[in-house]
């Protein structure tokens, strides 16, 4: 009887060992061309914590890869999702508690399309950006934590170009600018928190230019001309 139990335990140990070995042999494998193939798991050097996990199809990443920060193995710090039909990679970044922080897309390791950022720990959008070839291109929008729009700015090839609107937390427009090649250039209007116009004029190459009008209680109070004339200096006789 004792020998039967002993032999049974031995057989069970052998079977379990074989199963564990088979499971281990299913990961971190190469194909006949020495390309990574199947499920891969990499750990931080000298530890048992996973650094990343994902799957390869003959050297090509497929599906979702999870990347972990050292010391936090409960939630991934980032994920990358690949498809065999496209060279676009969808990425997401997370807080240490697993809340979504940022999501967007890469192509050839460069940001493209719309990127969305969230107020930390919430599902409220903090900012939206548009990219082309890793440069801001198109509309950038910033939002308050109450969800209302705080600012919009147009970009072209990474440089401010076009209209810029800035809003108060109550939704009122408080500043309006125009940019050309990254510098203030064009019409400008400034409002108080109640949305009443307080100043208006133009910029040229980053400096105030021409006649500026200043208002109080919706009435014109005075004007100023820019650039200001330098006072003349009398020559000594």
TrEMBL record:
It comes from Mesonia aestuariivivens. Keywords: Signal. Residues 1-22 form the signal peptide. This is Toxin-antitoxin system YwqK family antitoxin. The keyword Signal applies. It holds the Pfam family MORN_2. It comes from the Bacteria.
